[in-house]
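Support request, please re-run this one:
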Amino acid sequence: LLSWNDVDLATGFNAYWGTNPGIHPDNAASYDASATGVASPLTVPDLASGSTYYFVVTSTLGDAESSGSEEVSVTPIVNPLTKLDQEGQALAADAETWACVRDDRTGLVWEVKTDDGNLRDRGHTYSWYDPDVDTNGGVSGVINGGACFGSSCDTTSYVEAVNVAGMCGASDWRKPSIEALGRLRQCSNADDNPPELAERCADFDGSFEAPTIDTTRFPASLSGAYWSSSTSDLDADDARTIDFLTGAESVAPKSAVNALRLVRTDRTYLASRIGRSSTETVLQINDMVQPGSSFSLTITNNMEQTFEIKRFLFVNVDGVIAQTTDPNDLNGGFLEPGESFGIEVTVETAVKDEDLATVFELAKEALEIELLVVNRI
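Re-run finished. Output below.
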C-alpha cells in the first residue's frame, strides 16, 4: 500500500512509479507506470519481490496538477527466501526443484540439503575442523571424524568438496558464522522471525514445530545441531551450533559430529540492492575534462543491513584522482537501512575522460564482505 497525507482543496491525486530514481511526472520516460485520480491508500499491483521501486505523488485541482512530492522508495519482499537453480539463477516461488536459497534480506545464499545419499545428503555428519590459526580460536579440531560420502568427513573437507563441485555456480562457499546461521531459525509460535540469537522457540507462548526452519525452502532439514564457523568464547575446544530441534544456540566439542549447511555471499545481488543516482556538469575539450567540471554519486541502502562506508574515490583510466577515507566525509562511516548519502567532486585540473567514475567502497563484517564496490551509473 502507498499512502500519503491529504492536501487542502485537492480533488484527486496521481501516483507515478518505476525502478529507477529521479521520477518526474512531466517526463514519461522517467517512470514505468502511473495511476490517475486515485486516493490514499493506493494498492500498487504487480511489483516484483526484491526489486526497488521509486514513487512520486501529485495532487490535482480540476485540470491543474501540482509538482511532485518528495520521492520515496520501497523494496517489497513477499518471501525473502528466493529459490535458486544449480547455476545460481533465481527461480519462481512455486518451482518444484532447487539447489540453493538466497536470503534477499542479507544477500546470503544457503545450501539446500538433499536426501539422495550423495555429497550433500542431509544425513551426513562432520567433525569440526579448521587449520587456520586466524579463525580456529587456537584449536583446529578433528579431521575426518564424521560419517559422510564424497569428501573427508570434517567441516573444512566438506567446504572444499562443495567448492570443487561448483554448487549453484559458485566456488566461494564457507561455514556460516553463528550470527548468520541463527538467522535461519523460524519459530512457528513467534510473531517475528528470526528470533534474537539468545532466544529459543520455547521462550515464546505455545507449541512450535520442528525443525525450526522454513521447510518450504529447506525441505531436507534435520531437527538437530548444525555447525557454525564460530569457536566458543568460553572454551576453544568447543564450537558454537544451532539446534534446529529447539531453535536454541548451543556449543559442542569440536570432536563431536553434527550436520553442516554452507553459505556464501552474493556480492552481485548486494551491489544491485544499493541504489545509485549520479549527476555531472562537464566541460570537455579534446577528451580532457576541464577544471570546474563536477560529478556526484548518491547511494541508497535498500537492504536490512547497515554497511560501513570504507572509502570514496574519484578515478579514471590512470588510477585514483582523489579519495577520502575520513568518516567525517563519509556520513560518519556508515549507511543505515533506507538511508541515502552522496558526495560531489569538482575537478581542479584537467583529467582524462576515459573510465572516469565516482566510486564508493562498502563493507559488512557480518556478511564477510571486505569490499563491495558501487560506482556511478
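The chain has a mean pLDDT of 93. The chain has three helices and 25 strands.
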